[in-house]
Design brief:
By secondary structure, this protein is an alpha/beta fold. The chain has one domain: Aldolase class I (TIM Barrel). Helices cover about 35% and strands about 20% of the residues. It has helices spanning about 30-35, 80-90, 105-115, 135-140, 140-155, 170-180, 220-230, 245-255, 265-270, 275-290, and strands spanning about 5-10, 10-15, 15-20, 40-45, 60-65, 65-70, 95-100, 120-125, 160-165, 185-190, 190-195, 195-200, 205, 210-215, 235-240, 260. The strands form 4 sheets. Strands 3-4-7-8-9-10-15-16 form an 8-stranded parallel beta barrel, surrounded by 7 helices. Strands 5-6-14-11 form a 4-stranded antiparallel beta sheet, with no helix packed on it. Helix 5 (about 140-155) runs parallel beside helix 6, helix 7 packs parallel to helix 8 (about 245-255) and helix 8 packs across helix 10. It starts with 5 loop residues before the first strand and ends in a 17-residue tail after the last helix.
């Protein structure tokens, strides 16, 4: 019999799937729907100190193998979002509050406020590629990643996970910096910076010109990043990027992930994707002699074969 339950930074998950930040996670009702669909944990929309409208339309381009988005971190601000989080908690699964800010102090303060609102853990968004002054602009420097993680840990009492950018020369260096700063876990990866142009209009399609590429197209990059991070740090890793099947999830786990987040596949396939991923994972584990999720983590590395 296979066991899909897992533990991430002290959080007990009924299965290793999480709703990724930014997809149907801005309201309590949508997060409750994800919980009822069978997800193991939910990551909220990235929330800032104040309300933010985001970028002008168009904000999403559908591509053959993924999505290109430049939402611009729209959110209601932490004060208004607190009531949504309380509603989401009724779903009975761990809620990981995602936060972003323009300074190290803002992020640490938001982490504390998100914990106060009831989040079971905090995800530091250090990797958004399309919001000027936030995300990847802060998270591309190992020194700043270390400092942000340290400040956030000083202000909180729940697990803190750092979401890392792939738009860097060495994601392993960022991972080591987050671990040194006291992060309890890592999330990899966020979207890849990309662009789409309308040839007839002779102009960028997105209102912001640049956006973040997600979906199946980035899965090989995400798997590679998780693999490199696993060899660089000791703390748990949550894999993200192009996961739409049980086999995709297993690939990330064998690279070193303890759990996985699903985003674009929810957009394209609906909430049923979580139960399908879990069924396919369970079938794979049964067919290949794995009794637990932990048995698969990191087995693609030479010393684990």
């Amino acid at each position: 019999m296979t066991d899909l339950s897992t533990e991430v930074c002290g959080l007990r998950l009924r299965n290793p799937t999480m709703l990724a930040s930014g997809v149907l996670d801005e309201t309590g009702k949508s997060m409750l729907a994800a919980a009822r669909a069978g997800v193991g944990a939910i990551v909220t929309k990235s929330v800032g100190m104040d309300q933010r409208p985001g970028h002008p339309n168009p904000t999403i381009v559908e591509l053959e193998h993924g999505l290109l988005n430049a939402m611009g971190l729209p959110n209601p601000g932490i004060e208004l979002f607190s009531s949504e989080l309380k509603e989401a908690k009724k779903g009975g699964v761990p809620i990981i509050g995602s936060v972003f800010g323009g300074t190290e102090q803002d992020i640490a303060e938001l982490a504390a406020l998100m914990e106060k609102a009831g989040a079971d853990a905090i995800e530091l968004n250090l990797s958004c590629p399309h919001a000027k002054g936030y995300g990847a602009e802060l998270g591309s420097s190992p020194d700043r990643v270390e400092s942000i993680c340290r400040l956030a840990k000083q202000r909180t009492h729940v697990p803190v996970l750092a979401k890392l950018t792939p738009n860097t020369s060495s994601i392993a260096d960022l991972a080591r910096a987050a671990e040194k700063g006291g992060a309890d876990g890592l999330v990899a990866i966020n979207t890849l910076k990309g662009m789409a142009i309308d040839p007839e209009a002779r102009m960028p399609i997105l209102g912001n010109r640049f956006g973040g590429l997600s979906g199946p197209a980035i899965k090989p990059v995400g798997v590679r990043c998780v693999y490199e991070i696993y060899e660089a740090v000791e703390i748990p890793i949550v894999g993200v990027g192009g996961i739409a099947s049980g086999r995709d999830a297993v690939e990330y786990m064998m690279a070193g992930a303890t759990a996985v987040q699903v985003g674009t596949a929810v957009w394209t396939h609906g909430m049923d994707v979580f139960s399908r991923i879990c069924k396919e994972m369970s079938r794979f584990m049964k067919d290949n002699g794995y009794r637990s999720v932990a048995d698969m983590v990191g087995v693609a590395h030479p010393d684990k074969r």
